[in-house]
């Protein structure tokens, strides 16, 4: 705890009662008035708490006001902090363990580009149609179900490899999927995106099955064995131990081209899901929960979205709440384009009736009626507005601080500083990365401080906010929250749960070995360095023909293309080159992506498509080359 003590901040055991409600925002002057203290005293105390460049018109958010009031020994009434991510949580019913029933597993396929993810999905989807209804046509709705050939069990596959919804949910720490199938081509073994996928899998805690594909390319058994041994060793290097290597991860060898062993893949998924005993509730009284896996506006139909059900049974007339929109379910169809009357857990259906288009990856929750939906949407919008206000207050405070800073400079100095800031887009000096050190004894506190305080370079540097002995206190957590610090604990073995899983989500790092501690601090510093990106081409298209069509009075040009390789997504970043790869004539994004008249989200190798570009770019011609790229972060070092 920092030594505060300008009169008002003397700590005592008896808490004072507040005689005002804490506002969302308050200036330093007004807070000083409410507290009956001198403005300068409050400013000095705020500086001790780590606030920089404070003046009397600095605006404090509610969180910071609470912190200072706590330091002034006031009792702060407990309130549940709601934000637009968790606002709907209070509507969720807790599951009734007795009502949990087995449901099909939800599976995502990941792997390196061109290792055969799409071919596996196509094989599974086509075989599912052939079996269900001869000659039927599947529509892409983001997920589909197969029935396994031998055990006749159902499996749900998310049907775009590395599906956007899956990635978005993962970012938020939610799990849309139960099992990941990691595809590795027998020809290539592990490649960079395989390694990326392994990282995803480890972080998500999902169960894993490894599928070695393209085995038809190695008809001789001894060649297959050789390749397989290499893959198993490569996997081991990345901490994946398959069954053949003493681990418990299943490995299947398949060819999605010939269909060889594809039934083994499906049965492996079923047997893993049985071990996992995947269940969810779907009593008649269960309120539905699920996720949006696709959403689009269909011409003459309206807003439609694919909902993957997590619990409950969705029926016509149900009211679903999602983000800032809701839906009275008008109609539901499955991926065979058949109308259905209900959708059970792990089933995906296209749902019609949305007021506005929901976002892919967002969670849905059933509510009793439209009035409840509207009430919660209004609450959420108010929270979003508040969050935006907090952001603009932060910006206001920063601008004020910058103005204050600049007033001490004059004339030419001021001009130069402004120009420099503009050019380098940095404030002066390296970025300070804050740490709070907590140790068992004071000797080790000093030792830890000395070994890390000099770390850094001209971009980032280590800044020690405080060092002290003992487990992190509530005050340490608040200080860490205020200063965005990481708390480093050395030789502190037993930490209370409320510290480890603290409500501020402050990272608490524990060490007994100083080298490991230094390594991690370097890692944190590197993560705070500026991100540098380079282009990575992930797909190319040949521009074959330019089409024109009239929209009202305007003529619109469309680039008619064929995908030479990779996967192309709507909104992807692209560059267009002419005659040579160096001659870039356009850089921007895909605005619309169509197949025939239909808007599509993705297309891939061998397919034709029509494209328009952002910024109304139309100066393209047949023969141009379109390269789709991602910006890939370049690894940084101290
Ligand atoms: N011989 C053989 N070729 C395959 C097999 N699976 C996929 N391929 C071929 O490998 C190439 C890439 O397959 P895709 O399914 O598009 O690979 P992907 O992983 O989806 O690729 P991206 O979508 O670009 O990430 C295509 O030419 C496929 O025909 C297989 O089991 N055997």
UniProtKB/TrEMBL annotation:
SUPFAM superfamilies: Initiation factor IF2/eIF5b, domain 3 (SSF52156), P-loop containing nucleoside triphosphate hydrolases (SSF52540), Translation proteins (SSF50447). Coiled coil: none annotated. GO terms for molecular function: GTP binding; GTPase activity; translation initiation factor activity. One of its GO terms (cellular component) is mitochondrion. It comes from the Eukaryota. GO terms for biological process: mitochondrial translation. InterPro entries: EF-G-like_DII (IPR053905), IF2_II (IPR044145), IF2_N (IPR006847), P-loop_NTPase (IPR027417), Small_GTP-bd (IPR005225), T_Tr_GTP-bd_dom (IPR000795), TF_IF2_bacterial-like (IPR000178), TIF_IF2 (IPR015760). Keywords: GTP-binding, Initiation factor, Mitochondrion, Nucleotide-binding, Protein biosynthesis, Transit peptide. Residues 102-277 form the Tr-type G domain. Its main location: mitochondrion. CDD domains: IF2_eIF5B, IF2_mtIF2_II, mtIF2_IVc. PANTHER family: TRANSLATION INITIATION FACTOR IF-2, MITOCHONDRIAL, TRANSLATION INITIATION FACTOR IF-2-RELATED. Belongs to the TRAFAC class translation factor GTPase superfamily. Classic translation factor GTPase family. IF-2 subfamily. NCBIfam families: IF-2, small_GTP. One of the essential components for the initiation of protein synthesis. Protects formylmethionyl-tRNA from spontaneous hydrolysis and promotes its binding to the 30S ribosomal subunits. Also involved in the hydrolysis of GTP during the formation of the 70S ribosomal complex. This is Translation initiation factor IF-2, mitochondrial. It comes from Arxiozyma heterogenica.
